[in-house]
Design goal:
By secondary structure, the protein is an all-alpha fold. The chain has two domains: 144 residues, Cytochrome c-like domain (Cytochrome Bc1 Complex, Chain D, domain 2, Orthogonal Bundle); 143 residues, Cytochrome c-like domain (Cytochrome Bc1 Complex, Chain D, domain 2). It is 37% helix and 1% strand. The protein contains 13 helices and two strands; from the N terminus they run H-H-H-H-H-H-H-H-H-E-H-E-H-H-H. The chain has a two-stranded antiparallel sheet with strand order 1-2. Helix 2 packs antiparallel against helix 6, helix 2 packs across helix 7 and helix 9 packs across helix 12. The two termini are 43 Å apart.
């Protein structure tokens, strides 16, 4: 080959290699705070996001090895196409098809959460996976046995070494890796977000009217832009035969009876059924509940006691406007993000 062609080929290969390196480097951008979001509250200083830790966490999230009989993974009840909730199940089905008592909450935007679970029984994301992993109707495993299985596997010792620089697989490393995956489950690209960031989109007339109604009647609890204020409130649901008293089971305080964490309203189109026990299968039913079915109780949230009849009065027209606005909180890119999918 003539010298000039060899030189050209070398240059071409160098350019391709450089471009490929850039593409590879861009595949994992790490955690990014959306422009319209507040600063996260998670302690990143003790668990800095890295590609190897995130990928390890993703593998663990979808691996049934963490359950007693290797049949149930975190991803079994937190499905990406349902915004990492358990769509269609009023309460989640765990190991041996056992039923829990609560609806599996969506996993999204947890870097901004100050507590976890419907009752706030976990205050640190790095501790949260222990609850479902050891619950006898969820994964029914022990951390000790889970670690034994991970250590005996063909892949995990080297993956933990790559991520944490240590051959030893520890409980702390398992939990931090799972946190890394959950922290990267950020939903921030809905139409609402585009409007708030001034990216060229605008609300339709119905959506704008719904937004104004939302700000007037709903935003005290479902605070923008996360659409939760991380508080615990009794929204007047009549207790079922299970008589789940919510946060009181954690605090033992009678004032917390029947209070539950205010859920985010993001991606509601994909996370039915609704409420802590999944009793409502449509958003129309939820709105009608607040309009006419809120029950009086000693711990009912004061915001629902403002009117003669408990609840939030809504006309049929107002309900339609609210539904139009709530759809602007859907984020299909989050549901299809390949980096969050099972690999």
């Amino acid at each position: 080959m003539p010298k000039k062609y060899r030189l050209g080929l070398i240059i071409l290969i160098s350019v391709i290699y450089a471009c490929n390196k850039d593409i590879i480097a861009e595949k994992f951008a790490g955690f990014k705070n959306p422009a319209n979001f507040p600063q996260p509250v998670y302690h990143f200083s003790t668990n800095e996001i890295t590609q190897s830790k995130f990928e390890l966490g993703r593998k663990l999230f979808y691996d049934p090895i963490l359950s007693r009989n290797n049949t149930i993974s975190c991803g079994s009840c937190h499905i990406q196409t349902s915004a990492f909730s358990h769509h269609g199940h009023n309460v989640s089905h765990g190991i041996d098809d056992k039923l829990g008592t609560r609806n599996a909450p969506a996993i999204m935007n947890l870097a901004w959460y100050t507590s976890f679970m419907w009752d706030g029984g976990v205050f640190d994301l790095d501790l949260q996976p222990v609850a479902p992993l050891t619950n006898h109707v969820e994964m029914d495993e022990t951390m000790e046995n889970a670690l034994k299985k991970l250590k005996a596997s063909a892949d995990y010792p080297s993956l933990f070494n790559k991520a944490f620089g240590e051959q030893e697989i520890t409980t702390a490393a398992v939990l931090k890796a799972l946190s890394q995956f959950m922290l990267m489950c950020v939903s921030s690209n809905s139409k609402y977000d585009s409007v708030m960031r001034g990216e060229g989109k605008t609300f339709s007339t119905e959506e704008e009217k719904g937004y104004k109604l939302f700000q007037e009647k709903c935003s005290s609890c479902h605070k923008e832009p996360l659409f939760t204020d991380n508080s615990f409130r009794n929204n007047g649901l009549a207790p079922t035969s299970i008589d789940d008293k919510g946060r009181q089971l954690v605090t033992l305080n009678e004032q917390d009876a029947y209070t539950f964490k205010v859920p985010s309203l993001r991606n509601l189109s994909y996370t039915a059924p609704y409420m802590h026990d999944g009793r409502f299968y449509t958003l129309e039913a939820v709105l009608e509940y607040y309009n006419s079915k809120v029950q009086q109780s000693p711990t009912l949230d004061p915001l629902l006691k403002k009117e003669t009849v408990s609840g939030i009065r809504l006309t049929d027209e107002e309900k339609n406007y609210l539904l139009a606005f709530l759809k602007t909180l859907d984020d299909t890119s989050f549901l299809k993000d390949k980096k969050l999918s099972e690999q």
